[in-house]
Structure formats: structure tokens, C-alpha cells
Amino acid sequence: MAVDYTLYLVTDSTPEILGDRCLADVVESGIKGGVTVVQYRNKTADTAELVREASTLHEITRRHGVPLIINDRIDVAIAIGAEGVHVGQDDMDLQAVQRILRTSLPNAIIGVSTSSVEEALTAARNGATYLGIGTVFATSTKKDTKSIIGAIGVQKILTELRSNSLNTPCVCIGGVNASNVQQILRQSRHDDVALDGVAVVSAIMAAPNPSEASQNLRNLIAALPAISRTQSLGLMQITNLSFVPDYIAAVVQRKPLCHNMINTVVQTMAANMAIAIGGSPIMSGNGAEAADLAKLGGSLVINMGTVTPDSLDQYVKAISAYNAAGNPVLLDPVGCGATELRKEALQTVLTAGLFDVIKGNEGEIATIAGTSAQQHGVDSAPSNLTLRQKAIMVEEVAKRCGGCVVVMSGAVDIVSDGYQTVFVRNGHEYMGLVTGSGCCLGTVIAAFLAVHRENKLLATLAALLLYEIAAEQATTKEAIRGPGSFLPAWIDTLYQIAQSPESDQSWIKGGKV
Ligand code: 3NM
Ligand code: MG
Q1: Ligand 1 pocket: which residues have CB below 6 Å?
Q2: Quick check: is 170 catalytic?
Q3: Backbone phi, psi, residue 424, to 5°
């Protein structure tokens, strides 16, 4: 039978996790909440107890049409006629398991724990039905974990398997819970390679309400936005910018909510720019209302420009709320390398959830990449990196952040989703003389993200071109004598283009990508 690995529950009967509750009740509750596979794992009970408990569980799982897999004990699996077994690297080797089960349980699922590329390739080549990949995050549930591999380790294993044409289903295990399930699923993705599900112990077994905990995990998994790879954009087709007016028209038509948690310097300007391009801004710094706002289908901007301990707490709440609702989040890590406090705040934010776009200047992106020199204030320190070196850095950060789009703003803007990278040479020097011109780009991009979720790279590119070409056009107006008169003219031009992006497409011919 085809197994659904989406939410794989591994049981644990220890007092630390099960407490004094009944194992069968907890498992049934989990299944009712959405568990799709159950593994009975008990490292201490006597054989008679194992067989007895396994058959009780089997009765429940059968009733709900969910497969039951027995950890390690092939004999117990055979005794109760379970759907499968799961073996670790220190258990009986896969070929021996296959020999034994060939006659007694010929259709058995045989899962294997793996923590390295070699182990995974070997198990998959030898015919494992599925692989458990771990340990993803540190966990106290299993005392003898070998290595913590993180999302990057999982991604590496998945990529190697798939590039060797091994399509064995994979789940990951170790420290997975509601706060990180979206992160691990998204950050382990690469091209069209993805996990088939997640395996958890304590997130369900130790939950006060296992059914609710399972339901919550299923919802979080379901809310995860599909990875939106730019379809054969390529460098050839990027010369055709005719999608930009269409993207703008859709923003104006849909009037997306733009929830800005943005620094206190640029609130008004960001709100005005959002309105000019057709968005509906709300400048709320209160994380407690983020869950309600997230339901309205808009996007969230986290701009750390005037971060404080309190605003940081609010960001974390809002990021979780938007991630849970599956709505886009843009991070502007303003001045994140300038002080120790900002570096710490950046780490808090980056681990709080997932971002669809990260936008920063060179110093800020370099700080995220871990390669920056000391920043002076919020402006980017000049570096001697070549454009190519910067592009590699942008790509790296995009990959590391699990398929988010990274924008490094500058004289040449670099935009990458980790697979495709685009340079944009539009803009005007006056932009650098108006405070908040970088921050407001985040707000404008976020408005586009809310409407164009299927293609984050193109959405970002459309917003960037609109923003910078409008700035160029504004400076050609007669009354412009400097940055002061430039700002209102820029807002006017954004508004004019947004109102009729298609009636006169000549503006987009100014796009320099
Ligand atoms: N196997 P929790 S980690 C059973 O790395 C098990 O192979 C692991 O428990 C491995 O979801 C683990 O509570 C325990 O962190 C996972
Ligand atoms: Mg084992």
C-alpha cells in the first residue's frame, strides 16, 4: 500500500514523555489529529509486554487505516503481523531483515535510520522502503544520537539521493516540533527535492492534547507555501520585462494588506509609498494582533531599523503568525552588523521563522552570510568585493534561508532565489540622499509578494523595477533641484505608473536587468 509519511509518530513509553498516561490513548488521539504513520518504539519492555502493547496499538492503527511499524524488533513485528519494521544503524542490517521478512511478512515496510550521505545511499540502494534522516535538531528524547545535521544536512542527503535517481521516501527526525516544522521542511528543500514528512516523538507524545498537537502540525505542514521556483526565467527571457506592468496592475486591483513592523523613522513615508503603488498599509508594531491581520491575506514586513527588546518580541510573534497562516514575510535587517545587540536580534529573528524575501545592503547581507566587516551605523561599509563575489554571497544566503529571495541593494542591485540571479542597474543617486528609501523598497516588495506568491523572484523584480525606474523618471521633472523636491515627485511617479502601468509601457523599456 502507498504510505503517507506526512506526519510520522514514533512512540515513547518513558515516564519523562508518556507520564502516567495510557500509550494507546495517546496514539489514538494523535491519529485522530492527523498522524499518518505510527512506529512503536520501546527500548526497555520485556518481549511479552512488547507483543501485548504492539497488538493493542495495531488494533487502533488498523481501525484508522494507518500503518504500524515496529522499531528494531523484527520478531515482534512478525508476531503481530505489523505493516513494517524500522531499524537503526546499530540494529540488524537491512539485508538480514529483508531475508527474514521475505517469507514471514513479504510486503513489510522496512525503514532505516540514516545520518549521513553514505548511510542513506547504501540503505536506499539496498531497497529500504523509506529513510529516517536525523538527528535534525538537538533532542533529549533519544540519548545516544550520533550527530546533529540540521536542515542543511538533510538537504544534502536528499539531494544526493535524488541525483543518484533514488526516490526512496524520506522523513526527518529529531527535535521537530510546531515551532520549527515549517523551517525544516522548507530549508531542506532544494530544486524539486523535498522531504515526504516529519517524524516526531515528544511534540505529540508529550503534548497535553496529542490530537490538537497533531492537528496543529498538520496545519503548519499544509500552510507551507509551495516552493516557487522561477520557471525557466533564464537570462534570455529576463530581457522581456512585459510581465512587470501586469504584476503592477494586479497589485493595484487587489489592494493587498501590507503589515509593516517598521522603524520609527520611515513609518509615514513607507505608508505613503505603499498607498501610491496600490497597497493597503497598516503600520502595527503589536505582535498580539498579527494573527488576526495574517488572516487578511496580506504580507508582513519586519524592518529592524529601530529594534528594541520589546519590538523584538513583537517581531517573533508576528513572524510565527504569518508563517502559520502561510502568508509572506519580508525581512529588512537594518544595520544588523552595527552593534552586538543588533547581531543578537538578527539571530533571534532568523530563527523565529521563515522569510520569503530578505532585503538588505551589502553590509547587512554580509552580516547574515557571516562574512561582514564591522558596519558603521546603518549604511553599508564600502567593500572591495567584485559584483560576481557579491552575487555568490547573495545566492549562498538565499540557499541557506531555504529558498527565500535575497535582494542586495546597491548601485547594482542583486536579486537571487539561490538558483537564478538577476542584476538590476536602475535607480538614482538621490535615493541615497533620502532616508528610508531602502526601507520603503521592502514595503513595496512585500505588497507585490502578497499578490504574486507563485513567483517570489519575479514579484521582487517587478517591485524593484517599478521603484527604481520611478525614481529615475522623477528626477527628470523640471522642479527637481535635490533630494527634498525629489521625494514627493518620486511618490507621484510611483502613483502615476501604478495607475496606468499598461497604457504606456514605454517606462518599462528603461529597465536595466
Ligand atoms: N531517532 P523528538 S532522534 C527516535 O536521530 C529518534 O535517529 C532519532 O524525538 C535519530 O521528536 C529520535 O522528541 C528522537 O525530538 C526524536
Ligand atoms: Mg534503533
Answers
A1: 10, 113, 132, 134-135, 139, 141-142, 145, 173-176, 200-203
A2: no
A3: -125, 125
* 3-state SS, residue 497: helix
> pLDDT-derived band of residue 496, with 50, 70 and 90 as boundaries?
very high
Residue from 170, 258, 401, 439 carrying the catalytic annotation: 439
Q: Report yes or no: 364 and 337 within 8 Å, Cβ to Cβ.
A: yes
Distance CA 386, CA 389 (A): 5
- pLDDT per position as a tens digit, 315-358: 999 999 999 998 999 999 999 999 999 999 999 999 888 899 99
Q: C-alpha grid cell for residue 192?
A: 524539486
Run of H or E including 122 = helix 117-125
Contacts of 59 (CB under 8 A, 6+ apart): none
What ligand 1 atom has the least distance to the C-alpha of 132?
7
338 and 367 Cβ atoms separated by less than 8 Å: no
Q: Which ligand is nearest to the CA of 119?
A: 1
CATH superfamily membership of 7-223: Aldolase class I (3.20.20.70)
Q: Which CATH number fits domain 247-465: 3.40.1190.20, 3.40.190.10, 3.40.50.2020, 3.40.1160.10?
A: 3.40.1190.20
DSSP letter (8 states) at residue 190 = B
CB 266 within 8 A of CB 435: yes
Which atom of ligand 1 sits closest to the CA of residue 202?
A: 13
Task: Read off the pLDDT of residues 16-40 as tens digits, 9 standing for 90 and up.
Answer: 999 999 999 999 999 999 999 999 9
pLDDT of 145 above 70? yes
- Would the CATH topology of 7-223 be identical to that of 247-465? no
- The side-by-side arrangement of strands in the sheet containing 357-361 is 280-282, 257-261, 299-303, 329-332, 357-361, 405-409, 413-416, 421-424
Atom in ligand 1 nearest the alpha carbon of residue 113 = 7
pTM of the model: 0.76
